[in-house]
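Board notes (copied after class):
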Amino acid sequence: MHKVVEAMQIEGPQAQSIQTEFEVMTSLLSLSGARVLELGCGAADKTRQIAEHSDVATIVASEVDQVQHQKNLQIADLPKVTFKSFGAEAIDELDASFDIVMMFKSLHHVPVSLLDTALSEIHRVLKPGGVAYISEPVFAGEFNEVIRLFHDESVVRREAFAAVERAVVNGVLELVEERFFRSMLKLESFAQFEQGILNVTHTEHNVTPDLLKQVCEKFESNRSDAGYVFEIPNRVDLLRK
């Protein structure tokens, strides 16, 4: 029998607290001695934060972008971390082998047709009682308005949310809590935005000179005395096997 779920929301309340992802994550998870799998680790910023500022046992951090993965393999100062390359839809790990699975803004990068498979795979590798921490950006806010000029993620973010909701409704994973918060992103210049967002290796944006000008103008419209400061709305779904 399918479970009736009424609490899940894609955007959440308008009034949300301002917190860092690490603050939210550590308030929801028991990391002590945990064996952790991070899917879509990117440049391993969160990986490093968790490894250096918690007492996890081990972290397997996976990234499908081969350019970034090769860079991650050069990291030599994180003894708790093992870097691997596979996607959430085909996790190359044993059944029931992790206490926690984490995805930071990466579920919507999974091909839409494979989202259900990815959530089933997360269920498979979690130990009984283990939890999945899935953090996704809410499709709103000024930073999102800049991004959508060259990379509109409205459809894939809705599909990612719908897949999580299906996993809960169908009993693949149990919803423990849904948390909404705003994080702060501060950039010093458009050049920093280009390097960190436009020129990522995992997505080819194909930005024309005219479009680049539009993006730059939209970005510059957010200039303040403090630089370029954006409030990013986020949703976290904490799920349990």
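Comment from the instructor: The two ends are 17 Å apart (CA to CA). DSSP finds eight helices and eight strands in the chain.
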